[in-house]
């Protein structure tokens, strides 16, 4: 391929006087004039186009089942690097919104198959290209397998030709390319390249620059000709954007060649302007587990200890400051053969050359302890053993046998660690699940940082290089493009554990010479982890009974049958307390025990109580395995409009049924204001309702806070959509007016929804109280028991201007709610039908 430094005479870019960028599928399309475009970093006059801070990669996957696997590989690569991704199967889905609020939503657009991009409809191609030109967004595309008999074809309207169905060898890189970040520019791959269906690119246009080049397999024959120069074919090409203002990187094959994986990540970084980038620095920590543990005959001998010291010195040259981190269980010291006992002594002699962390004294799993006092006692034994033998335990880090108690959380372990060892950090491979390893994350609980650990399938059950399952070839494959290779590439934190430290460690650090590396202490590593990934600090409690592995390391004293099957999510001031009382009348329906602070509401999924952990939540649900006939529920009206409650409820209670009660949002807003006024909220006492709901940005903090709680929950469609996303077929919508006026029929509907048997005939348990103005519970001897004074108050009428303001304020939200309910096949409340039938005002 010829490389031309400047455009040749006569070259012209195609004219695009205006390009349409899709703003909304059902709304008007917005047209941006090309000559008004200014890059976001430009100081020139003109309109500035910005990429949203939380931008993502848009991936257009191919519909062909034969190519489905590679589409998944692209998505996995992006997800493993924690890039936000939107995937679209373009044959069956519309092009998604590209712009929202004037900001571009995507930093890069990726086509699994180049032909999908080339053959887009004119309107869709115009949308994609226009967006890329305006927002300086690049495109990555792969050629995919040849689906026809052509060996050469022109690429759309581009000055580019593809030659297909080639076999290649000896790949090299163009060191002049600006794309490289992870990739070593001087790397060459000698020998036959995998696959027989390569595509190469050729063009004389200055916009194209080679990234990777290779020879054909017949090149050796040509090289026999005197003075002949090898012909290099471009396998990965960079469109510099000279032709039409869009930069692209095109690949002539998929990830079968492992180098393409890192070239792909480099291309994503370069074409996204660094927004989607892999950090080069790597934090290395190798825990050597079970020191002194093991039956006689398989433990470390003196020669093994010496080999470990030599290995540590070698690794320190690759990773400055490297030390093995040894986890000890003191009970097993000097319990091996004579040779192994000499190995124990040798470890203690060189104890200051390693880092050390406490395992359990007797290697017992935390969930098997009968009491926290026994656990603390054993930890103290291990601590005394360390002091007696001058073991320099590295402050602040510990690991539990088999990760028991770390996740799913055993509260006694966390409190005992704090009490005895002042633990600040630990690690596990169990959160959120063991597999796939790329999805492992960290969290912080009770002040202890839990960081994810990788295993890569290396030496978790074997000790010697020759014993690696599958032999040397399988190990090489793991290093060259396989699980180990991708673990190093995908995460800046490289936490490993093995049973013994042998020469295998060199392989675990293979490929790290490209990266700046450090061997920080475990606590320093944990702090750095949450500095880089701050969003992971808050845990997401999942149902232990949904994972067989988690059940193995969860206490037998606990049971998922205690968890509720129904959650009443609110919103506030819609009748949730009344529904709670009516449900509690059923002999087979049990609510949670009351909380001292929040009474019948636990408010677990929407507030600070979530940080108390799963054990805290479960203690409020009585019974266990012997109470399987009980149908459990909880009601917390703060859940409905919480931005994260739906995600949390679904993680812990994926099969739960959800009830939401909706009333006219204007009335709900007014009721909340009056509620706060009764509770002597200063903002409510000092300002009228109209003043609160119309308060401007310059109003005091207390007024703005009250305004938010009055108005925000009533944007029902926004909040309900979050719940429908997780529970599309498990939600019942109750009309709050109907619950007030005809609770008997509503409770019949509720019982059918949850499937309870036998059903209760509520006409024998509820009676209308004319004095209170709503239905009350019939108690013994025929007397009625109504809800407290705070419920069912009669308020003065809302002033007309407030009514008019709120009707206009909620009009669009109510239209969206109506559409949402119909789309999901849910009942539309009568009050909503009447509200939308009224002519809009203003």
Q: Do you know the CATH topology of the largest domain?
A: TIM Barrel
- Please tell me the total number of domains: 3
**CATH superfamily caption of the largest domain:** Glycoside hydrolase/deacetylase
Roughly how much helix do the residues carry, as a percent range? 25-40%
β-strand number: 33
> Kindly, what is the distance between the CA atoms of the first and last residues, rounded to a whole number of angstroms?
65 Å
Membrane topology: Single-pass type II membrane protein
Family: Belongs to the sulfotransferase 1 family. NDST subfamily.
Domain Heparan sulfate-N-deacetylase N-terminal: 58-271
Organism: Stichopus japonicus
Care to describe what's here?
By secondary structure, the protein is an alpha/beta fold. It folds into three domains: 18-271, 3-Layer(aba) Sandwich (Rossmann fold), CATH 3.40.50; 282-536, TIM Barrel (Alpha-Beta Barrel); 561-738 and 748-755 and 791-836, Rossmann fold (3-Layer(aba) Sandwich), CATH 3.40.50.300. Helix content is 31%, strand content 19%. It is built from 26 helices and 33 strands. The strands form eight sheets. Strands 5, 6, 7, 8, 9, 12, 13, 15, 16 and 17 form a ten-stranded mixed β-sheet that branches. Strand 19, helix 7 (338-349) and strand 20 (355-358) form a beta-alpha-beta unit. Helix 8 (372-388) runs parallel beside helix 9 (411-421) and helix 25 (800-823) packs across helix 26 (830-837). It is flat, with a radius of gyration of 33 Å. Residues 564-812 form the Sulfotransferase domain. It is found in: Golgi apparatus membrane. This is [heparan sulfate]-glucosamine N-sulfotransferase.
């Amino acid at each position: 391929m010829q490389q031309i430094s400047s455009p040749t005479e006569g070259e012209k870019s195609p004219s695009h006087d205006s390009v349409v960028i899709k703003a909304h599928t059902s709304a008007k399309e917005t047209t941006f004039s090309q000559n008004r475009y200014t890059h976001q970093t430009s100081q020139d006059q003109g309109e500035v186009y910005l990429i949203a801070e939380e931008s993502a990669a848009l991936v257009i996957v191919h519909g062909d089942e034969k190519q489905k696997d590679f589409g998944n590989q692209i998505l996995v690569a992006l997800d493993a690097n924690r890039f936000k991704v939107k995937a679209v199967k373009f044959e069956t889905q519309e092009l998604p919104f590209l712009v929202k609020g004037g900001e571009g939503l995507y930093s890069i657009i990726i086509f699994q198959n180049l032909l999908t991009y080339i053959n887009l409809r004119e309107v869709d191609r115009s949308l994609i290209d226009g967006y890329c030109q305006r927002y300086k967004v690049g495109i990555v595309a792969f050629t995919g397998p040849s689906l026809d008999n052509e060996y050469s074809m022109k690429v759309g309207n581009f000055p580019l030709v593809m030659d297909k169905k080639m076999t290649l060898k000896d790949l090299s890189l163009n060191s002049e390319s600006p794309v490289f970040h992870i990739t070593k520019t001087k790397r060459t791959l000698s020998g036959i390249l995998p696959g027989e269906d390569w595509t190469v690119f050729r063009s004389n246009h200055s916009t194209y620059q080679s990234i990777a080049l290779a020879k054909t397999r017949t090149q050796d024959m040509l090289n026999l000709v005197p003075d002949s120069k090898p012909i290099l074919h471009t396998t990965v090409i960079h469109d510099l954007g000279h032709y039409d203002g869009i930069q692209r990187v095109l690949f002539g094959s998929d990830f079968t060649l492992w180098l393409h994986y890192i070239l792909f990540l480099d291309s994503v970084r370069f074409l996204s302007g660094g927004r989607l980038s892999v950090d080069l620095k790597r934090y290395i920590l190798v825990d050597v587990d079970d020191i002194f543990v093991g039956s006689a005959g398989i433990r470390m001998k003196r020669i093994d200890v010496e080999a470990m010291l030599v290995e540590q010195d070698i690794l320190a040259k690759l990773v400055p400051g490297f030390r093995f981190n040894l986890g000890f269980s003191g009970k097993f010291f000097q319990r091996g053969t004579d040779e192994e006992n000499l190995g124990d002594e040798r470890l203690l002699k060189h104890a200051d050359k390693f880092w050390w962390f406490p395992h359990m004294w007797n290697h017992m799993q935390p969930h098997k302890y009968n009491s926290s006092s026994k656990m603390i006692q054993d930890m103290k034994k291990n601590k005394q053993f360390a002091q007696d033998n001058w073991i320099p335990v590295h402050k602040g880090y510990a690991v539990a046998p088999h990760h028991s108690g770390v996740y799913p959380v055993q509260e006694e372990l966390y409190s005992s660690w704090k009490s005895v060892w002042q633990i600040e950090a630990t690690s596990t491979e169990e959160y959120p699940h063991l597999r796939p390893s790329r999805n492992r994350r960290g969290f912080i609980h009770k002040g202890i940082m839990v960081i994810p650990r990788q295993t890569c399938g290396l030496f978790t059950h074997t000790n010697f290089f020759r014993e690696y399952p599958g032999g040397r070839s399988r190990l090489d494959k793991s290093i060259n493009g396989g699980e180990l290779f991708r673990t190093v590439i995908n995460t800046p934190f490289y936490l490993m554990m093995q049973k013994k430290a042998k020469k295998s460690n060199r392989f675990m650090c293979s490929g790290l010479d490209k990266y700046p590396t450090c061997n920080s202490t475990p606590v320093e590593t944990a702090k750095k982890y949450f500095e880089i990934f701050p969003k992971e600090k808050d845990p997401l409690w999942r149902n232990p009974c949904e994972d067989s592995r988690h059940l193995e390391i969860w206490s037998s004293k606990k049971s998922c049958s205690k968890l509720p099957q129904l959650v009443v999510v609110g919103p506030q001031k819609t009748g949730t307390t009344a529904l709670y009382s009516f449900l509690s009348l059923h002999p087979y329906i049990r609510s949670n025990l009351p909380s001292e602070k929040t009474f019948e509401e636990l408010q677990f999924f929407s507030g600070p109580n979530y940080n108390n952990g799963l054990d805290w939540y479960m203690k409020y649900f009585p019974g266990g395995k012997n109470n399987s006939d009980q149908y459990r529920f909880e009601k917390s009206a703060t859940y409905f409009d919480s931005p994260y409650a739906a995600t949390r409820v679904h993680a812990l209670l994926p099969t739960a049924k959800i009830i939401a009660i909706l009333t006219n949002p204007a009335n709900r807003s007014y009721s909340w204001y009056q509620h706060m006024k009764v509770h002597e909220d200063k903002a409510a006492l000092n300002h009228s309702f109209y003043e609160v709901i119309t308060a401007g940005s310059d109003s005091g903090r207390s007024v703005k806070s009250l305004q938010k709680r009055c108005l925000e929950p009533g944007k029902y469609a926004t909040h309900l959509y979050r719940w429908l996303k997780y529970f599309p077929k498990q939600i019942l919508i109750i009309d709050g007016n109907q619950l007030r006026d005809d609770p008997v029929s509503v409770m019949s509907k509720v019982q059918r929804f949850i499937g309870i048997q036998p059903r209760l005939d509520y006409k024998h348990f509820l009676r209308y109280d004319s004095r209170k103005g709503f239905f009350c519970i019939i108690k013994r001897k025929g007397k009625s028991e109504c809800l407290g004074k705070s419920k069912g108050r009669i308020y003065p009428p809302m002033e007309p201007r407030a009514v008019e303001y709120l009707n206009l304020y909620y009009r669009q939200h109510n239209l969206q709610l109506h559409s949402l309910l119909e789309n999901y096949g849910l009942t539309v409340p009568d009050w909503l039908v009447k509200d939308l039938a009224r002519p809009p005002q203003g």
